[in-house]
Amino acid sequence: MNQLASSYRIRIETRLDNPGWTRVVSSILGVILALVVGGFVLRAAGATDPIGTYQEIFKEGFGTPADWQAGVTALLTNTDCPKGLLCFGPLSDTLVKTSPILLTALACILAFRMKLWNIGADGQMFMGAWAATAVAIFIFPPGTDRVLMLGVMALAGILAGFIYGAIPGFLKARLNINEIIITLMLNYIAYKWLEYFVVVGPWSIGDFESTGRFPVSATWPRLTEAAKSIPALSGLTAHPGIFLGIIAAIVLAWIFKRSRWGYEIRVIGNNPKAARYAGISLARNTLLVMGVSGALAGLAGMNEVAALRELNGRFQRGLGFTGVIIAWLARLNPLAAILVAFLFGGLLVGTQLIQPQGIASMLQGVILFVVVGTELLFRYRIRFEKIERVAIAPEALHDG
Amino acid sequence: MTANELIALALTIVFGALVSGSPLLFATVGEIFSERAGVMNLGIEGMMLVGAMSGFAVWFKTGDVLLGLIAGMAFGALLALLHALITITLRADQVVSGLAVTFLGSGLSSILGQPYVGQRTPQPTPIVLPIIEQVAAQQLALIIFGLIFAPLAWFYLHRTRPGLNLRSVGEYPSAADSLGINVYRTRYLYVIFGGAMSGLGGAAMSLITDPGWVDGKTSGLGWIAVALVIFAAWDPMRGVWVSYFFGLLRRLPLDLQNPALPLISTANNPSLGRLMDMLPYLATIFILILGSREAMRKRLGSPAALGIPYVRGERGL
């Protein structure tokens, strides 16, 4: 037998173990690669200095160390911040933006864990905002106690989100209809629903495409309200709504780790057949998970509208989709989502004023792509192996 | 309103439905091919957006509509190639990768399309037809192309050898493989074809059916196409009817603004028009519910290997 030629071939084989570090590495790699690819896209779009653009985004979204230092000094000496809003303004804005996207991310995490693709957090959020507005303006009188008012608004948001999420859950459980499409269609319906009420319909005041300012009791207390005693806080819009998300993340983490329900969700997500044999109800859990997922998104809507202090035609779309990416980047880990949501909050705030628009959504898309792609690189081991071709009997050639 | 006027109005509405249903038809049939080969591509919306933007950009630079349509196809295909790479070679989850295609497509089209927002648009060439008078030649060409394309697609899928190979790869890839059909190459091919058709649909929108480029031009039409594939039970001919029906629904708010219409005109009632905008989306949900009933009764099903990555030599489909 004489050797004819030898070549290398790439073999992809399944990794038997899946160590935790691979997830962290692939998420970080995803972000880095996304920034690189995004840089090229920015170049193509005419930006001469992509790195400068990124720096600008970071500065707008989080501030600079010098500004923070000045802010901390002002806090300690109880004086006004020398740089005005620059000290903590970006951080405060980022926290405001983090609140809703953390909640929508948690909504996605809960559903995705069961392999239910709830892409409708956006619509559920809109419905939550709508219901909370109904409470704030049309049901409770303006003089209502603030805690009570905000509490009932939150409940209304949760309820509206739950119903709006349970609809696709029901269709999935009973008729096995693809939940991706239903949740997406419900998104568009929710956009139009809100437009109908706020832009042309019964809730708009004159031509302002807005419900008008909420009564104070229906808005989050802001840091700036404490500016009389702590002058450095003046002008900051950060509000306690962020704690709703953090608490929800902790509860969700506990549910996944410790509770029977979390266990059931995991089993269904990994192997629905095994779950059925174990006596876990698929239909009940589908309905429940979609409902609770929607409820979290609905709470995000209430959170946002109580921070905006009015509902208007410019109510931001796409925060639910940002939730999808945060969920994926956090590897469906609720606690990791807190950090990722904060970073994305900064990205959203940082890209608000920067041209060209759409940087945020482009970066999000690339990140998701790279994360899915690299995850597989880690799930499989890639090996290069040498193939030696030898002349052998013809019939053996057919031996695959 | 005289009888002749009513007939003309009805024909105008039908013509409008066929026109605005055509992009949807291309995307739907493209996706049917992709899914029949076993790869679900949820990125239609993104590919349509990129197709619409790039098509418009190329037309803007060259003034050639046909070149714009081809560019739209090419860039749609390019995004689909990315999806194919991630899902076929890297065996990623098709759902997540498809979502990423949509995010990427809408982001890219938004950034790169910025200079073209609100620019001048391709001017239609008017030709005169009996009864409905003036129509755009490009729109007529689009309709004719769609009416030829869909039956051809059906014939290819059901009556030719490559069509059989295509279906076998989506139903039972390991059996197809053992017969010497290259599963990976076949899947790549039809995923890319699906992307090209979505891109064509997008470009047809920005150049012919609703000329002009704005951010988020397709407003969910790509997602509707995903739903139509299911309702069409993966059959191109059924895809034709539902696409044109949705074309009608999409046009309806516009058509009903016509003050000549008795009773149901929305000209003096803008909030009703706003609610009418919900119609295509509501109808999609409704149609899926209807379809699920029928699917249960007739046992229509998705291609058996849809969504499952093929790994040569591994057990399973």
Can you tell me about this structure?
The complex is a heterodimer of chains A (400) and B (317). Chain A has helices at 20-44, 50-62, 65-77, 89-113, 121-139, 146-175, 179-200, 241-258, 260-270, 272-277, 282-308, 319-329, 334-352, 359-379, 394-397, and strands at 3-14, 380-390. Chain A is mostly helical. Chain A folds into two domains: 1-45 and 362-400, no CATH class; 48-69 and 89-355, ABC transporter involved in vitamin B12 uptake, BtuC (Orthogonal Bundle), CATH 1.10.3470. Chain A has a two-stranded antiparallel ribbon. In chain A, α8 (241-258) runs antiparallel to α13 (334-352). Chain A starts with a strand and ends with a helix. Chain B has a two-stranded antiparallel sheet. In chain B, β1 (126-129) and β2 form a beta hairpin. Classes of the chains: A mainly alpha (400), B mainly alpha (317). The interface between A and B is large, with 52 and 49 residues.
Average per-residue pLDDT of chain A, rounded, comes to: 86
Strand content of chain A: 5-15%
CATH architecture of chain B: Orthogonal Bundle
Low-confidence stretches of chain B: none
Major β-sheet profile of chain A: 2 strands, antiparallel
CATH class of chain B: Mainly Alpha
Computed CA radius of gyration of chain B, to the nearest angstrom: 20 Å
CATH architecture type of the largest domain in chain A: Orthogonal Bundle
Strand content of chain B: under 5%
Total DSSP E strands of chain B = 2
Total strands of chain A: 2
Lateral strand order in the biggest sheet of chain A? 1-2
The gross shape of chain B turns out to be: globular
CATH topology heading of the largest domain in chain A: ABC transporter involved in vitamin B12 uptake, BtuC
Instruction: Compute the number of helices of chain A.
Output: 15
